[in-house]
Amino acid sequence: MVCPARNSLGPETGRGPMDADMLPDGLVVADENGTVVTFNTAAARITGTRPEDALGKHIADALPLEDMEGRRWWVCTDPYGGLSTRTRQPERNLLLAGREILVTASYVRADGPRGPLSKLVVSLRCTDARRRIERGHSDLIATVAHELRSPLTSVKGFTATLLAKWERFTDEQKRLMLETVDADADRVTRLITELLDISRIDAGRLQLNRQVVDMEEAVHRHLRALECNGLPDERFVVVVDGPLPRMWLDADKLDQILGNLLENAVRHGAGTVTIEMRAVSIGSAPGAYGTEITVSDEGPGIPDELLERVFTRFWRGNRRGGTGLGLYIVKGLVQAHAGTIGVDRAECGGARFRFTLPAAMPDVLM
After folding, report:
1. Which fold has domain 3-126?
2. Which listed residue, of 18, 102, 185, 221, carries a Cα 20 to 30 Å from 322's Cα?
3. From-to residues of CATH 3.30.565.10 in the chain
4. Where in this chain does the record put each Histidine kinase domain (predicted)?
5. What is the Cα–Cα distance from 143 to 328, expressed in whole angstroms?
6. Contact between residue 290 and residue 282 where contact means Cβ atoms under 8 Å apart
């Protein structure tokens, strides 16, 4: 048994041997006889086998893998007696004691590409992360399908009715139907925009088109729009603590952030919605400053045990309606500006969202 070998992967460019236990994936190495000589900590975690129980065993006994049809994988692949031209086995789902794991194998051959197998290197990965991603994709598709069905049904119904019976309706009825179609088309457009934003945020490809932005004017513009939609102006209170710095931001992304937070406060909160703004220093570097904006309401608030889930996908709390993607996107947009965002309970008991954005002003504009 060669226990020390399980921790060493050979020299690492003059910095000493690399520790196999530092690798995030499971690593199992067998020598020319099929004897396991390396079995790292991640492999032990994934397989449930202790390294001391695997080292020194034949790899077929240490890793009794089967395919989805129950066939023994080592018998099917025969790495030591099979074709000498093979260099690897692509990643695939295999069963180990009835549990799925992802397995990849590489063949290290002595004396050239057709030589005998000197080492068999097997990489193991847990399927839990992949399943979570697949489940997230399935949930996203189901949510999108559900959210699209209602407005598209309305658009189809009203347009078909107008085309078939145009002369039977008064101008006022036609206007009402067309206004409904227009509103539902906007709803579909917003949903598609959310999906594109999520895709770019998750892939790290969100692009910012920065310009000089007046934060106070941006907030008041949103409030005027809400008031035009029938909300009384006395429902909103704006508090500005001192002069605000000039900001170098993506104006459209800022509008999305403010729009989502204000809509969330109006729809799910109650009472007065208070927007507070103040200049803040960011970090310890001299001259690093930004603006902090707080949006709070007087509603029931968010239970403490749910606060950590607010910015996750599909979070709706105990309320129905909406995609549950708005606050997830808000967090992504804030972080794309190198800002921070959090939520807690306001003094009056409602929800309080606070985000901070750095000014990020180029020297030429300061």
Report:
1. Beta-Lactamase (3.30.450)
2. 221
3. 210-365
4. 143-361
5. 14
6. yes
- By residue count, the chain amounts to 366
- pTM assigned to the model: 0.61
Confidence label for 299 from pLDDT (cuts 50, 70 and 90): confident
H/E segment holding residue 356: strand 351-358
User: Residue 107 — very low, low, confident or very high, per pLDDT cuts 50/70/90?
Assistant: very high
H or E element at residue 294: strand 289-296
CA distance linking residue 268 with residue 282, whole number of Å: 31
Q: Residue 309: what residue type?
A: R
Task: Give the Cα separation of 313 and 327 in Å (integer).
Answer: 8
CA-to-CA distance for 332 and 352, rounded, in angstroms? 18
Structure tokens of 275? 């927007």
Confidence of residue 237 (pLDDT cuts 50, 70, 90): very high
Q: Which of 62, 59, 127 is nearest to 93 (CA)?
A: 127
Phi, psi (rounded to 5 degrees) for 79: -65, -30
Average pLDDT, the chain: 84
Is 210-365 CATH 1.10.3720.10?
A: no
359 in Cβ contact with 247 (< 8 Å): yes
Higher pLDDT, 159 or 134: 159
The DSSP code sequence of 135-193 is HHHHHHHHHHHHHHHHHHHHHHHHHHHHHHHGGGS-HHHHHHHHHHHHHHHHHHHHHHH
Burial state string for 168-201 with b = 16 or more CB within 10 A and e = fewer than 16:
eeeeeeeeebeeebeebeebeebbeebbebbeeb
Q: Which part of the chain has CATH 1.10.287.130? A: 131-203
Q: What residues does CATH 3.30.450.20 cover in the chain?
A: 3-126
pLDDT tens-place string over residues 4-59: 444 555 544 334 445 788 888 899 999 999 999 999 999 999 998 999 999 999 99
* CATH fold for the domain made of 131-203: Helix Hairpins (1.10.287)
